[in-house]
Amino acid sequence: MKFEVTEHPNPTSGERIAEILQNPGFGTNFTDHTTVVDWSADAGWQDARIEPYGPITLDPAASVLHYASEIFEGMKAYLHADGSVYTFRPFANAARMNASARRMALPEIDEELFVQSLEVLVAKDKAWVPASDGEALYLRPFMFGTEAFLGVRPSQTVTYRVIASPAGNFFGGELKPVKIWVSRDYVRAAPGGTGAAKTGGNYAGSLAAQAQAAEKGCQQVLFLDPLHENAIEELGGMNVFLVTNDGCLLTPELTGTILEGVTRSSIIQLAKDRGLTVEERRVGLEEWAKGAADGTIVEAFACGTAAVVTPIGELLDGDQTITMTGDFSTTLALREELLGIQTGKVEDRHGWLHKLA
After folding, report:
1. Which residues of the chain have pLDDT under 70?
2. Residue-level pLDDT at 133
3. Domain co-membership, 238 together with 328
4. Backbone angles phi and psi of 235, in degrees to 5
5. pTM of the model
6. Is 254 found in the same domain as 336?
7. Would you say 247 and 330 are in contact if contact means Cβ atoms under 8 Å apart?
8. HEC string of 138-200?
9. Which SS3 state, helix, strand or coil, does residue 121 take?
10. Which pLDDT score is estimated for 172?
11. CATH number at residue 217
């Protein structure tokens, strides 16, 4: 599909971009342009375009405002040594977005069009891609219902967009183990619900628990499955792994209540490449606590597009603290290899990279 281009009338100066890239933070600064494709039940996908980044005009009765008719993805674009820009497994993100679309009664988007929308935006705003280690241009494709109506049914008009934001370390500053709060008051998802879809409502529902975590001095919250003996599920926006003293990686199995992370599946593959055993199964919080106490579970880490791979140092469950005693050697090795592949410093054995610009 051909993207028509409307140039930004007042693009950000090179000096200002350089200033932003000195300390990009996460999700606070945005590039000059956005890609847009509209959909209607009658005409399908149409009117692909690049336009200046700016406010969106919506009817007050738009579906997304009343019925949370919305899904999104998260990806990163990395600057390589030769000046080219690559992203990581974009067709996996496209497939996941379509899975979310099916669950949320939104239209599926052609995977090639999804990837093309990333290519044209990054080519236009390439100057915004950071060059420092661990930094990237965060890409946020999203889709939402725009039809003005107050009846509960799928929206007959939809807009798909991509915005981009230079990003540093998700948890800020130097990489160090984070502290996690166990939520006993809230659950993230239920069987048959929307837990496996990447939709904004799941994240809105996690914010009260995240606020509790912040009050306890924690950087993230862990959700449990009370229907299965408090099996661990995922963090507010990340999957979780445990590492045993005999080199096994444990991670919650995908039961329909957990988001299937692209980083999660990549870590599983890289671990198997190293000869590690990976077990995808229900893992109870009690098993984690007992394993940390007797030394059979030595490391824990969170993973996701934004956080990449981040070690978990402590888990706070009310008055109980679960402390990881390992040196995070496995965690850091997997992080280094994953980032190495993404930035072009390590061989891409699985063909995961895709050139954007």
Report:
1. 171-174
2. 84
3. yes
4. -85, -175
5. 0.95
6. yes
7. yes
8. EEEEEEEECCECCCCCCCCEEEEEEEEEEECCCCCCCCCCEEEEECCCCCCCCCCCCCCCCCH
9. helix
10. 64
11. 3.20.10.10
Residue 106 sits in the same domain as residue 191:
no
Do 73 and 182 lie in one domain? The reply is no
Contact 258, 196 (CB under 8 A): yes
Tokens linked to 112: 């090639």
Helix (H) or strand (E) holding 286, with range, is helix 285-294
* pLDDT for residue 53: 98
Query: Would you state the pLDDT for residue 134?
Result: 82
Q: Quick one: pLDDT at residue 173?
A: 64
Distance (Å) of CA 58 to CA 46, 65, 261: 18, 9, 31
CA atoms within 13 A on the CB side of 254: 9
User: In the chain, what's the furthest Cα-to-Cα distance?
Assistant: 62
In the numeric block, the tokens 């679309």 are attached to: 101
Residue 45, pLDDT score: 98
- Number of compact structural domains in the chain: 2
SS3 state at 279: strand
Q: Which of 141, 167, 193 is the last residue of a domain?
A: 167
Q: Mind spelling out the 3-state secondary structure of 24-87?
A: CCCCCCCCCEEEEEEEECCCEEEEEEEEECCCCCCCCCEHHHHHCCEEECCEEEEECCCCCEEE
**What do you get for the CA distance between the two ends of the chain, in Å?**
18
Name the residue among 248, 356, 236, 224 with its Cα closest to residue 296.
248
